[in-house]
Amino acid sequence: MREDRDLTHTELAAFGAELDALRLRTLENLGAADARYIRRVRAAVRGCCWIGRGLLMFGWFPPTWLLGTLLLGLGKILENMELGHNVMHGQYDWMNDPEFAGRQYEWDIAGPADFWRHTHNHIHHTYTNVLGKDDDVGYGLVRLFPEQKWKPFYRWQPLWVSLQALLFQYAVAIQHLRLDKYFKGRLGKEELRPLLRQFNAKVARQWAKDYLAFPLLGLFSGAFGAVLVGNLVANLLRNLWTFTVIFCGHFTEKAAVFPASVLEGETRGHWYLRQLRGSSNLEGGVLLHILTGNLSHQIEHHLFPDLPARRYAELAGEVREIAARYGQTYNSGSLSRQFASVLRRIWVYRRPSAVDA
């Protein structure tokens, strides 16, 4: 359980002012090094994907198939986490480069980027961990906090979570369709139909690329099956990794949720405090931070979603110090520890009688 000190209105104002000042100092310091970094990430994504796809053309030969699949999976993870997610937050809009324009970027997953920009950038980052407002709390399938009202299908949530992890790129895309509202009669067919067309078109393009075009190229070397399975496994690796990182950033033992009433009269200081209390960091080396798109610094990402994620590591020390001075928990731990606490929540809160131990 968290043991955070309640802040007075004066302290909240000062808390918010300190974090605002930290954000402004970082914005003023953005420049060539940040632009060079994201261009190198883009080059790494292209290199991993094309080398990986090239190796898969050699068929099932163990070294090339395994290495090709892993490189393609690595490229997809980097594109999803460190490139696409961060670019779509507008972190590099200041470069005035169309390839890194947040509102134009389209990423390499089944969900249309426009869906993500609305459900994640707008809804989730505005209403982080507010019950009834932030659909990311359990994604409508999982009870992770005792404050969530129990429903009978939560009994089977270990199964739902497993399926969600395997198909994560589809799960986050379907979230935007709001099928729950449709089946409850609160969303009409005329509203759902254009969203379905957009979703189906993006899925068709992704499937045509990964499961038709590249496997057909493999026919020339007799590697159709090897390429097809390699693409499938690479997407699976990306799904599982993304699921793990996102759940570890939001649903660990010390992460908090909030009632909708918290939004009434919410100040900048209140908003910052909610981001801090609702987020969890992962501790590790540079490679872990890059592979997570620096969402290993989920606290800093929720505080400053529009700052280049490569800056979060240097901001973390100051954020931790500010949190300590105001008597707030800075929730950080190893990947194994944080993920274990997520799995515990999934198991414990499947029952209606569960209490937060």
Automatic annotation (TrEMBL):
Pfam families: FA_desaturase (PF00487). Residues 64-332 form the Fatty acid desaturase domain. InterPro entries: FA_desaturase_dom (IPR005804), Fatty_acid_desaturase (IPR012171). Keywords: Membrane, Transmembrane, Transmembrane helix. GO terms for cellular component: membrane. The chain crosses the membrane at residues 60-78, 212-234. One of its GO terms (biological process) is lipid metabolic process. GO terms for molecular function: oxidoreductase activity, acting on paired donors, with oxidation of a pair of donors resulting in the reduction of molecular oxygen to two molecules of water. It comes from the Bacteria. The keyword Membrane applies. PANTHER family: ACYL-COA DELTA-9-DESATURASE, DESB (PTHR19353:SF84), FATTY ACID DESATURASE 2 (PTHR19353). This is Linoleoyl-CoA desaturase. It comes from Pseudomonas panipatensis.
